[in-house]
């Protein structure tokens, strides 16, 4: 059996920033005293003159990024998701969203898998927050290959982008031939009974869940949805029509994230059961990342269970 | 300052005040007090100091102005209209549903506006970003920001001030409109930002205190700012909120309300008289 490569999406973020820096001297990278953790330190090492550390001041980070972007720079502003989307929400909304400036927010350490740091740092609200800002693109890659593709697409996109990266090393799903497009999801495995639409590190779990379901006679389609906004409406509608039941899976609160986005589309087009796997409106806690993912039901077993429920709802009604 | 120039600048400031009153009156909403207190500095900036071109408002090498106290938009719009960035007649559409003249500055809709502002404390960070960009790019443009004294209660102002001081952004000038009033009362009563110059100095800024309605003093302050290398400059302007309209001067209740018909007529009469005197 081939060895599974594991890499954190934040690692790919740092590497790709260096790649971008080599190609385009308009690229500037900002951080708020977390360069080692967000991996922007790689860019700092390669291009110290184009790296700016604003210190522990995330509101100011976003404002300075906006000012720099207004002069024609492509600005990557990095911090943990908690502080980039949470603490600096209003600066992102008014100085970057309302102005539609070319700022790319690189938010790392998103979700429960921050692990031992605990609830104060486990941001499970960022997708919901960012989704409410008009014109904001939200990308949540599943592995390092997709993370690189997201960073390149964000740089090429005119306007603000929120990129969500994890701390934890996750198994590689895609290979170098993978083609990413903002606003598009992709079917990783076809099936007729139910669709699992997953994003970020839950994509790997969704594929594992589909294997389990297969052995139990349920044929699940698995969709990777890296672009939360804009979301691939056509693909969601197709899934609702083709399989008649949907389960969403994300490392985020079940309120307002991928599950919310999918449910909004389904309710307004082809109403079918939509069950959501995510953090159930609770704060996290300290612990090893992998353990916490199981504790909060962010794993293949829970997805499979929800998928069976969704199939039952489809057959028997809710 | 040359007497003719000074008179021209005073006339521009007076006409800017008339634009403020006109706009806020027509909109039946807006912030006249803090708009009237910055008309003199806007006159100097747009007529003497800043390199901007109404026919090319997005020129990459232009000087930038960020109205961090975005609620003073009526004054900024009046100054921009007088400079020919857009028709003066449009000032009457301020805050109307179909107008591009938004209640607070919008950089995409309004020619001459360099940053969308309105949420206090954010404009100064953007101005710092612009000044930093000029340094990184080896560009010669300068960046000006106008802040309220009440706005200094926002923590982000000091995040930006700390960074600008540490980076030695000597191409940045922040004017503090120190009219001593905010919505809930005097700044001292609410949550005093005083002493303002000492605070900026502690963050590594060059500081100048002036009468914000004295054009000679504004000129001197900007000369000092340009001469100061390695530090941003904070110009703390002692101003009168509501300046130029007798019943609005130093009156806290004129922060964010529009004059009625009678008050409008009285304000315009006063400004018209001041203008006639200047033009005589």
Note the gap between the termini of chain A. 42 Å
| Mean pLDDT over the residues of chain B | 98
Contiguous low-pLDDT stretches of chain A (5 residues minimum) are none
Distance between the termini of chain B: 19 Å
Main pleated sheet of chain A? 7 strands, mixed
CATH architecture of the largest domain in chain A: 3-Layer(aba) Sandwich
By DSSP, the count of extended strands of chain A is 14
Q: Give the strand order of the largest sheet of chain B, numbering strands 1, 2, ... along the chain.
A: 1-2-3-7-6
Number of domains of chain B: 1
Provide the low-confidence segments of chain B as ranges. Answer: none
Q: Major beta sheet of chain B, specifics? A: 5 strands, parallel
- Count of DSSP helices of chain A? 13
Tell the overall outline of chain A. globular
Oligomer: heterodimer
Helix content of chain A: 40-55%
**Strand share of the residues of chain B?**
5-15%
| Domains of chain A (count) | 2
